What we know:
79% of the residues lie in helices and 0% in strands. By secondary structure, the protein is mainly alpha-helical. The two termini are 17 Å apart.
Amino acid sequence: MSNAHLDSAVLATLQDVMESEYPALLDTFLADSEERVRLLRQACQADQAEALRRAAHSFKGSCSNMGATLLAELCQELETAAREKQLGKAPALIESIEREFAIIGILFRAERQRYG
């Protein structure tokens, strides 16, 4: 699987390391990410720049570890905006993160089906 959304080398490494637990890893990432997106929205709505920065930073790391490169880049942009207290940029970035996460969800569910 090589495309702009996922780093196939990272996924191949995860498959090798996790072996039979690889599908569970994908499931865990998807469930955890839904909560992370909720936290991003919540911090943005409450105008909590530091909470938004922390949530974006944490999500960025998770995305990087799972090979979701574009999603990690969007989280980095949101983290930077929050650090610089430019919360006016946050709603559009969060929308982009939500759209990209929806794509990642589809790709990871397809990946999950291939591995049972």
